[in-house]
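C-alpha cells as discussed.
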C-alpha cells in the first residue's frame, strides 16, 4: 500500500494514503481530543495525548452515538445517504479527517466542515463529504466529528457547577476545539493556519452561526459558509426548537437523570455504559431533540441572531438554501383564526399582513399564500444588519430520480462537494457542470472571502455580487450559475421588517 505522505503534527507522526486522485492525500481518523468517556463525558473536550510511533490514518474513526435509520427506502434521507445498517459507533468519537494536495505545497487555504443532522445524528463518514474534489482546487479540507444528542447537548446543574458559571453545548465546544487543533497543526499538511474557513449545512450551518456568535473565536477563522442553516423566526409560533435557555436545558437534564437513567448524581450517570445512555435517550417520552442552549458561557445569545450583535466574529459569509425547504406558514384555518394569529406576531402591520391572503381564507389557502422560506428571510436580515460581506444563493436544480424529490433539504451537498458520482441518482452532464461551478465558487470563497474569480476550466465565473438589500442579487444555481435580482415578496418583506423589529427590541 503506497504511502505518499508522512506528516509530523504536535502530537505525533501521521501517515496518509493516496485518494482516488493520487495528487491528493487523505488522512482519516486523526484524534483531536481525548476520548470523551468516563470523567470526560459531559465535559469540555480535553487535549489528546501524544502517540508513539506513526498513526496510520487510513480509516474513519467511529461515528458519534446516535440513532441509525439504516437503509430505509421510505425515508428520503436514509435513501440518499445510508449505505451501512451497522456503522462503527463509539463514545470515543472525536476524530477529524483531512484531504490535502500533494507534498511540497504550503500556505493553502483551509476549509473546516461541520456536518448537519439536527444536532442529533450525522457523521463525517457520509459519502457526500469526501473532500477530494475541493482539495483538487488547492484547498486543505477538514471534516470534524463532534458529540451529538444527549452526549453533546445535555445540560444539568451538576455539570454547570463542575465547569463553573454554567456550560453545555459540548458539540459546539468539540467543533471549536477541533478548529483550534487545525490552526495548531494544519501547516504540516500544507495549510495556512491564518486562512481558515468554517462551513456547515443545516445544523452544521447552525453550528457555524454558533462559532460566529462566540466572540472569543475572533482570529480562529476568516470566512464562514452557512448552507441551509440560518433561520429567521418569521412566524414566532412556529419554532424549530434547536436552542433553549440554560434553565430549560438543566431542568430537562434533571428529569432525564432522575426519571429515565434513575441516577442520583453526575458520577453515577458517567458510570453507565454509553449504550445504556443512548437507548434511554432514544426511548424517553421527551426524546427527539437535545437542543443547544444559551448557557452564558459559550453562547450568550441564540446563534441564529449573530448578525444583530456586535459581539461576534466579523467575517464574510456565503449562505443560502434550496428553493424547496423550510417554508413556514401560519397555523390558521379561516379568517378569524388568521386574524388572531396575526395579532400574536409582534412588530407587524396586521392589516397589510391580512391583505396578503385571500378572503374568505381556508386552511389550504393560508398554507399556500402564507408560505415563506425562513432561510431566505434570515439571509436578507443578515445582509441588512451584519455590516460584513454576505454572498447569497438559491439552489433549484432539477433533481432526477424515481421519487421526483425537487430541490430538497441537503441535496445541494452533492454539488458543493462535487460528489455526484457517489449518488444513486441518474445525474447528467448539466448537473456535473453545475457542480463544477458551485465547487469553484466555494473554493474561491475559501481562498479569499470572495467567490468570484476563475473556475476549473480557466474561464471567469459569472459575477456574484455581495447581497445589497436595495438591489438584492442572488446567485441562482439552477441549470447553471446565474446572478438574478430576487426581491422579497410583499409578505416576506413585511415579515422581515417585523422580525427585525422584534429582534432589535429584545436585544
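Sequence:
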Amino acid at each position: 500500500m503506497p504511502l505518499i505522505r508522512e506528516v509530523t503534527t504536535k502530537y505525533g507522526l501521521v501517515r496518509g494514503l493516496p485518494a482516488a486522485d493520487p495528487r491528493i492525500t487523505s488522512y482519516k481518523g486523526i484524534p483531536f481530543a481525548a476520548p470523551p468517556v468516563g470523567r470526560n463525558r459531559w465535559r469540555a473536550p480535553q487535549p489528546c495525548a501524544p502517540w508513539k510511533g506513526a498513526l496510520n490514518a487510513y480509516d474513519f474513526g467511529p461515528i458519534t452515538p446516535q440513532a441509525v435509520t439504516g437503509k430505509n427506502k421510505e425515508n428520503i434521507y436514509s435513501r440518499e445517504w445510508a449505505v451501512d445498517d451497522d456503522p462503527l459507533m463509539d463514545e470515543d468519537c472525536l476524530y477529524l479527517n483531512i484531504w490535502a494536495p500533494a507534498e511540497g505545497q504550503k500556505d493553502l487555504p483551509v476549509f473546516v466542515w461541520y456536518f448537519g443532522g439536527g444536532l442529533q445524528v450525522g457523521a463525517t463518514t457520509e459519502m457526500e463529504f469526501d473532500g477530494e474534489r475541493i482539495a483538487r482546487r488547492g484547498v486543505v479540507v477538514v471534516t470534524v466529528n463532534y458529540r451529538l444528542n444527549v452526549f453533546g447537548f445535555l445540560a444539568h446543574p451538576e455539570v454547570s457547577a463542575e465547569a463553573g458559571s454554567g456550560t453545555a453545548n459540548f458539540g459546539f465546544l468539540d467543533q471549536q476545539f477541533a478548529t483550534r487543533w487545525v490552526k495548531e497543526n494544519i501547516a504540516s499538511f500544507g495549510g495556512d493556519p491564518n486562512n481558515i474557513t468554517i462551513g456547515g449545512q443545516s445544523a452544521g450551518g447552525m453550528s457555524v452561526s454558533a462559532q460566529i456568535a462566540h466572540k472569543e473565536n475572533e482570529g480562529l477563522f476568516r470566512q464562514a459558509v452557512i448552507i441551509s442553516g440560518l433561520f429567521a423566526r418569521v412566524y414566532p409560533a412556529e419554532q424549530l426548537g434547536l436552542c433553549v435557555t440554560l434553565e430549560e436545558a438543566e431542568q430537562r437534564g434533571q428529569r432525564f437523570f432522575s426519571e429515565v437513567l434513575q441516577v442520583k448524581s453526575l458520577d453515577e450517570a458517567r458510570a453507565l455504559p454509553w449504550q445504556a445512555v443512548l437507548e434511554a435517550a432514544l426511548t424517553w417520552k421527551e426524546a427527539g431533540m437535545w437542543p443547544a442552549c444559551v448557557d452564558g458561557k459559550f453562547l450568550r445569545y441564540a446563534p441564529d441572531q449573530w448578525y444583530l450583535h456586535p459581539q461576534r466574529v466579523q467575517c464574510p459569509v456565503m449562505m443560502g438554501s434550496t428553493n424547496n425547504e423550510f417554508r413556514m406558514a401560519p397555523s390558521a384555518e379561516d379568517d378569524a383564526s388568521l386574524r388572531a394569529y396575526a395579532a400574536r406576531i409582534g412588530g407587524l402591520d396586521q392589516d397589510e399582513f391580512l391583505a396578503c391572503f385571500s378572503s374568505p381564507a381556508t386552511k389550504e389557502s393560508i398554507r399556500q399564500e402564507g408560505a415563506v422560506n425562513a432561510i431566505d428571510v434570515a439571509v436578507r436580515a443578515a445582509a441588512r444588519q451584519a455590516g460584513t460581506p454576505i454572498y447569497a444563493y438559491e439552489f433549484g436544480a432539477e433533481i432526477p430520480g424515481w421519487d421526483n424529490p425537487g430541490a430538497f433539504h441537503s441535496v445541494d451537498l452533492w454539488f458543493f462537494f462535487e460528489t455526484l458520482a457517489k449518488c444513486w441518482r441518474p445525474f447528467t452532464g448539466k448537473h456535473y457542470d453545475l457542480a463544477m461551478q458551485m465547487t469553484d465558487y466555494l473554493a474561491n470563497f475559501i481562498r479569499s472571502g470572495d467567490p468570484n474569480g476563475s473556475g476549473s476550466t480557466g474561464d471567469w465565473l459569472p459575477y456574484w455580487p455581495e447581497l445589497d438589500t436595495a438591489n438584492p442579487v442572488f446567485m441562482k444555481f439552477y441549470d447553471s450559475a446565474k446572478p438574478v435580482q430576487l426581491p422579497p415578496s410583499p409578505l416576506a418583506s413585511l415579515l422581515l421588517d417585523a422580525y427585525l423589529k422584534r429582534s432589535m427590541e429584545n436585544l
